Amino acid sequence: MIQQYALLKKAVEVFHSYGIYLNGKHKNAHFIQQLHMDPIFVNGLIFELEYQLQIFIQEEKLGEVKTPKDLISLLISIPQEN
C-alpha cells in the first residue's frame, strides 16, 4: 500500500509538470480532444512516467489509454517488480 502511495505521488508530480492537474473533471478528460495535447507530448508524458517510476508499459496496453485516469489505472495494475 505504501509503495502504491509513493508511485501515485511521483505520477502526480509528473502530471503536474505537464500542466495536468488531476482534480475534478480533468482526470477524465481526453488527452488530445479535451486537454489539447499533441500526441508527441502524450508520448513524452508516458516516457517520463516510465522513467520516473522505473517501470515498463507494454505498447499493447497503451492503446486503451485515453485519459489521465486510464493511465494511472494502468500504472497501478503493473507489477512493481518488473
Could you characterize what this model shows?
- The protein is an all-alpha fold and 82 residues long.
- The protein has a single domain, classed as Orthogonal Bundle (Non-ribosomal Peptide Synthetase Peptidyl Carrier Protein, Chain A), CATH 1.10.1200.10.
- It has four helices and no strands.
- The relative contact order is 0.18.
- This is Acyl carrier protein.
Q: Based on Cα principal axes, name the global outline.
A: globular
Q: Note the main sheet.
A: none
Total beta strands: 0
Helix content: 40-55%
CATH class: Mainly Alpha
What's the CATH H-level homologous superfamily?
Answer: ACP-like
Run of helices and strands: HHHH
Rg, nearest Å:
12 Å
The assigned structural class equals mainly alpha
Give a summary of the structure in a few sentences.
The protein is mainly alpha-helical.
Question: What tags apply to this protein structure?
Answer:
Non-ribosomal Peptide Synthetase Peptidyl Carrier Protein, Chain A, 82 residues, single chain, mainly alpha, 4 helices, Acyl carrier protein
Topology:
Layout: H1 2-17, H2 39-53, H3 59-62, H4 68-77
Protein name: Acyl carrier protein
Organism: Algoriphagus machipongonensis
